[in-house]
């Protein structure tokens, strides 16, 4: 098994927990140890507690070396929106809707 749980596995774990299954039963069904399932729920509780205490969730990726200027930030956002707009146009064209 891989290091990370897949989205499907996370959904299955949540559903089985709502059904009242124990961590051992969930782990057995999905092929994980009881400890792995306990660690999954501990991570969720840890993140929820941090957010409840006012800490923002951790960002992913490498932090920037220097902060972006508002002008550069706006330019990048405009380029991102233009790419998204072009992608949607090409999708609609391919789908025959335009």
Task: Describe the protein's architecture and organization.
This protein is mainly α and 98 residues long. The chain folds into two domains: 7-52; 67-98. Helix content is 65%, strand content 0%. The chain is flat, with a radius of gyration of 21 Å. The N and C termini lie far apart (45 Å). The mean pLDDT is 90.
Features:
98 residues; mainly alpha; 65% helix; flat
Q: What's the helix and strand layout?
A:
Layout: H1 7-18, H2 23-30, H3 34-52, H4 70-94
Helix pairs in contact: 2-3
Quick structural summary:
With 98 residues, this protein is mostly helical. It has 4 helices and no strands. Helices cover 65% and strands 0% of the residues.
Biggest pleated sheet: none
By DSSP (H or I, 4+ residues per run), the number of helices equals 4
Series of H and E elements: HHHH
Q: Tell me the strand percentage band.
A: under 5%
> Percentage of helical residues?
55-70%
Unreliable stretches (pLDDT < 50, length at least 5) are none
Number of domains: 2
Shape: flat
């Amino acid at each position: 098994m891989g290091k990370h749980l897949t989205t499907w596995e996370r959904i299955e774990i949540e559903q089985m927990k709502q059904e009242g299954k124990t961590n051992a039963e969930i782990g057995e069904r999905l092929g994980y140890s009881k400890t792995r399932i306990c660690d999954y729920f501990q991570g969720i509780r840890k993140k929820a507690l941090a957010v409840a205490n006012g800490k923002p969730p951790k960002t992913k990726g490498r932090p920037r070396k220097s902060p972006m200027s508002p002008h550069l930030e706006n330019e990048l956002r405009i380029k991102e929106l233009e790419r998204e707009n072009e992608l949607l146009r090409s999708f609609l064209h391919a789908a025959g809707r335009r």
